Amino acid sequence: MPIATVNPATGETLTTYPQMSPEEVERRLVQATTAFREHRLTDFPQRARLMVRAADLLDADRDTVAALMTTEMGKPVAAARAEAAKCAKAMRWYAEHAASLLAEEAPSDADAHDSGASRVSVVHRPLGVVLAVMPWNFPLWQVVRFAAPALMAGNVGLLKHASNVPQTALYLEDLFRRAGYPEGCFGTLLIGSGGVEAVLRDPRVAAATLTGSEPAGRAVAAVAGDEVKHTVLELGGSDPYVVMPSADLEKAARTAVTARVQNNGQSCIAAKRFIVHADVYDAFAERFTAAMSALTVGDPMDEKTDVGPLATEGGRADLEELVDDAVEQGATVLCGGARPQGLDRGWFYQPTVLADVRPGMRIHHEEAFGPVATLYRVAGLDEAVDLANDTPFGLSSNVWTRDQDEVRRFTRDIEAGGIFFNGMTASHPAFPFGGVKRSGYGRELSAQGIREFCNVTTVWHGQDGQE
Length: 467
Prior knowledge:
The chain has helices at residues 22-39, 44-60, 62-73, 77-101, 109-114, 141-152, 166-178, 196-201, 214-227, 249-261, 278-293, 313-328, 362-365, 381-388, 404-413, 446-451; strands at residues 3-7, 12-17, 117-126, 129-133, 156-160, 186-188, 205-211, 230-234, 239-243, 271-277, 332-335, 352-355, 372-378, 393-394, 398-400, 420-421, 436-437, 440-441, 454-462. The chain is of the alpha/beta class. The chain has a 7-stranded mixed beta sheet, with helices on both faces. Strands 6-5-4-7-8-18 form a 6-stranded mixed beta sheet, sandwiched between helices. A two-stranded antiparallel ribbon has the order 1-2. A hairpin with a 4-residue loop joins β1 (3-7) and β2. α4 runs parallel beside α6. The longest helix is centred in the first third of the chain and has 25 residues, at 77-101.
C-alpha cells in the first residue's frame, strides 16, 4: 500500500509520500536512542509539564486535526473532534497519575527480614525505545493511549502508523515537538509494513506495541519472540451484545445502534454479534432494525451524517463478501445489505442487520469491520454464554440484564478482556484495556498500561549494608 492520503468519501488521492530511506530511519533511531538517555532521567513533574502542554496544544488544534482525520479515514467529523478531546483528556490523566502509578513499592518488613534484607523495594524503570505499530481506525487515540503512558514512564516512542493516515502521523510527531519534547522523544517512521521487521530487530529498540489485524499481530509477535522483546498486542474483536429479558429494552436497542456503527462500524470494540433472549427478541429486533435504517449515510464532513464511508476500498469489498456469503447461506437481511444509492463516489455501505445467522457462515467467526450487525435468538443464559464465547476473539463484551444472578454468571463465564453491563464498551484512561484469545495480550491504559513498558526491578539491601 502506498503511503498516501486518499479521501474515502471520494476515492481521490490527495497526497502521496515517499518511504523514508534507510539512512533516514537510521537517523531517527539514533535520535530516539539519544533522547532516551536524557528523558529517562527527568522527574515526573518535568514529564507532566510537557504532557499537559501537548494536551493544551491538541485542544487548540481540535477542529483542524478532526478535519484531517476525517479526510484521511472517513469518520464523521463530530466523532473526530470527540476523539481529539479524548486524547487530551488521557494526556492530562497520565500527567496527573503517573507518579503514583509508578511509585516505589515496599514488601512487608517481615518478608524483607525473612530474605535476609534490611530493606526491599520494587521500582519501575523505563525500557527504552518502544516501536508503536498503529492502525488507521482511531488514528489519534490509538497512538496517544500508548504515547501518554510510555512518555510519562520515561520511555521514548517511534511510530509506524498505517499507510493511509500519514498526515495524522506527522501531526503527532509535530505535536510533541511543539510541546517541548526533545528531538527524538517521539518520532514518526514513514515506512511500509515490510520495513517493520528491520526496525523491531534493531538492538536499540527495546519493545513494541501493535494495534491491528491478527496477521499483523502474528508477524510482530514472531519477530519479537525471536528477539526476546516484550510486546503488547490489541488485535481484532467480534464483541457480543447480549440482551436478557430483564433489560431496559428501549435503552438497549438505542445503545446497540451506537455500539455497532461508531466510527462507521470500524472499531475492534464495536458490538458486532447481537445475542437476544427469545422472550424479547422480536421487540428488540424491530426497534434495532428501525433505528439502523434511520441512520444518515453521507459526507463525513457534514455535521448531520451518522455514518461515513469505510476507510478503504478493500475494506468495503471484504465486508461485502461476508454479507453476500451469509445471504447465500440463508441469512435474512432486515435492513441494508448493499451500497447506498446516490453515493457512487467513495466507499460507502448501508447500515445492515442480518438475522438467521448460523455457525457455518463466515460472518459468524470472522470480524465484520463495518456497519453490519448479526442477530441471534437464544433460549436462555447458558445458550447466550456459549454463543458469546463461540468466537476466536475475546476483546470485550456487552450484557444487558438487571438480574444480579445473571450478572455473576456472565462475569464468571464470558471470555473477554472486558464486560460492560447495561452500556456499551468504551475505553477510558483509568481502566485497563485489552483482550484474550486471538484478540491479543497485554493491557493498555490504567496502571497496567503504563507498567507494560517498564522494567519492574527488585532492589534488595543486605542487613550489614552489603548489597
